[in-house]
UniProtKB/TrEMBL annotation:
Coiled coil: none annotated. One of its GO terms (molecular function) is metal ion binding. Residues 132-234 form the Fe2OG dioxygenase domain. It comes from Urochloa decumbens. This is Fe2OG dioxygenase domain-containing protein. Pfam families: 2OG-FeII_Oxy, DIOX_N.
């Protein structure tokens, strides 16, 4: 483990082969490069959250984020809806499949480290996520000289899932920002490194020991940016609440048992709004 100055990011060898990452990122870039008509073949449909289009459009008069995206449910493999899986570039599906299985192993290992880090059994957190749903959002942020300071690539939000693994092309283009003590900070993207974000489910499970990070993406005046976010969701057949072994002795329990399907349903039908969604589920 290394610590990166000045952003205090912890660096570990992530173990996902460079080739797997390279293939994915080049196929995602290849997908977005196509003419609009070709991408529209994989457009979002009314009956699903997946497909090509824009995220979180809930009304006609809202200001839209300056980005295109493609969202796919990638794991478990039986849950894939191939209506939304591009066939161009020809290797796209293969690249997504390989990347998703390698990266989820990394997510599981990180969950073990995190549990250990707070003195719990490594399997405690892993067990909540292993074999559960994994979603992949591919974001394309076009450059914009005029509006770069007036529109956002992605509005402030927290991720609803547990761990998010984020990879981006062109690491020299700053896009991701995290909020800390009321201020926005740019996250340094290191070449070939994942940025790991804690999402809502981990805040709930850990009773706030791990905090769901509020983040947003800004656009660049002259350079495009592509990011791929892999979301690891917890089990959904049981209520989700703080795991007793993760609750610090003497701490008040902050979250009651939560029906996670309702939690997601509400998340995906509202505009993105910082930490507000999560806070609605906090006990008084
Ligand atoms: O583009 C980024 O760096 C952020 C993406 C993100 O936060 C998301 O897809 O949820
Ligand atoms: Fe996010």
């Amino acid at each position: 483990v290394n610590t990166c100055e000045p952003c205090e990011l912890q660096l570990i060898n992530h173990g996902v082969p460079d080739e797997v990452i390279g293939n994915l990122m080049s196929d995602v870039a290849g997908f977005f490069k196509q003419p609009l008509e070709d991408k529209k073949e994989w457009s979002q449909q009314a009956d699903s959250l997946e497909g090509y289009g824009q995220a979180f459009v809930v009304s006609d008069d809202q200001k839209l984020d300056w980005a295109d995206m493609l969202y796919l449910q990638v794991q478990p493999s039986e849950s894939r809806d191939m209506r939304f899986w591009p066939t161009r570039p020809a290797s796209f599906r293969r690249s997504v499949d390989a990347y998703s299985s390698e990266a989820r192993e990394l997510a599981y290992r990180l969950l073990e480290f995190m549990a250990k880090g707070v003195g719990a059994e490594p399997a405690s957190l892993r067990g909540v996520f292993e074999g559960q749903a994994q979603g992949m959002r591919m974001n394309y942020y076009p450059p914009c000289r005029q509006a770069a300071d007036r529109v956002l690539g992605l509005s402030p939000h927290t991720d609803p899932n547990g761990l998010t693994l984020l990879m981006q092309t062109s690491h020299d283009v700053h896009g991701l920002q995290v909020k800390r003590d009321g201020r926005w900070f740019a996250v340094e993207a290191l070449d070939g490194a994942f940025v790991v974000n804690v999402g809502d489910a981990l805040e709930i499970l850990s009773n706030g020991v791990f905090r769901s990070v509020e983040h947003r993406a800004v656009i660049h005046p002259t350079k495009e940016r592509i990011s791929v976010a892999l979301f690891h969701y917890p089990y959904q057949d049981r209520m989700l609440g703080p795991l007793p072994e993760l609750v610090k002795k003497g701490d008040k329990v902050q979250y009651g048992p939560t029906n996670y399907q309702d939690f997601l349903q509400q998340y995906f039908t509202a505009e993105l709004d910082g930490r507000k969604h999560l806070e609605r589920f906090q006990l008084e």
